[in-house]
Backbone:
């Protein structure tokens, strides 16, 4: 999803309190920014923000941080947040720099929703569930943490199952057709709506990491 830079993006950056300009400076101190020590959940590739906005709205006891590498898209996500939503921040950044944004142990859960499938075999290392990324997520979690992953792409889902299993993660709530399953409380993302309306099944899993159990 490539979006042309919009003229209003710079103004949004200046004025929108949900956009974090210097995430590295908050490393280890996000609770100070939020003004409380509630758990922190992050969404990687949050797109236009529907999922994180609704998640934050429904879960006031959690602080949410979205990370998105396209500036216009993250500015759109910021625009879509209500000013009174105090438990959500957005970072214009890349998952590659995750460990520059957070201290190990500062994040308890990661959402990866409909990430780019990088379909060619030679691109497998770019997939966000490749074990190179899993190593980064484990470092981020410190002792333990969890990843909630959704995709419409069967090949990416199969790849991800193999990566998580081969790397010692505990898998649960695996669904090969989320919308026909008895899973409750699903929050649809923009891409999820688009693909499911075309009749594609949605795949989902939860992966948990616990250093002590290794
Ligand atoms: C296919 S879209 C899905 C957006 C949203 N999660 C949804 O389900 O509607 C993937 C998003 O991830 C972002 N993205 C891809 N790679 C990323 C990375 N390495 N770091 C941060 N964001 C990334 C893209 O810019 C894009 O907005």
Residues:
């Amino acid at each position: 999803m490539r979006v042309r830079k919009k003229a209003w993006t710079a103004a949004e950056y200046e004025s929108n309190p949900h956009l974090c300009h210097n995430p590295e400076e908050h490393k280890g101190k996000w609770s100070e920014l939020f003004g409380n020590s509630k758990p922190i959940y992050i969404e990687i590739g949050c797109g236009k923000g529907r999922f994180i906005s609704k998640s934050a709205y429904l879960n006031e006891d959690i602080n949410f941080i979205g990370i998105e590498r396209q500036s216009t898209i993250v500015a759109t996500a910021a625009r879509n947040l209500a000013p009174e939503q105090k438990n959500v921040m957005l970072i214009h950044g890349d998952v590659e720099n995750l460990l520059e944004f957070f201290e190990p142990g500062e994040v308890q859960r990661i959402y990866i929703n409909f990430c780019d499938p990088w379909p060619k075999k030679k691109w497998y290392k770019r997939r966000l569930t490749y074990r190179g990324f899993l190593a980064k997520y484990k470092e981020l979690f410190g002792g333990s943490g969890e990843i909630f992953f959704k995709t419409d792409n069967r090949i990416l889902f199969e790849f991800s199952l193999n990566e998580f299993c081969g790397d010692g993660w505990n898998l649960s709530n695996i669904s090969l057709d989320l919308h026909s399953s008895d899973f409750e409380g699903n929050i649809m993302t923009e891409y999820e709506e688009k693909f499911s309306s075309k009749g594609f099944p949605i795949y989902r899993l939860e992966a948990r990491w616990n250093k002590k159990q290794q």
Notes: The longest strand covers residues 144-151. The chain has a mean pLDDT of 95.
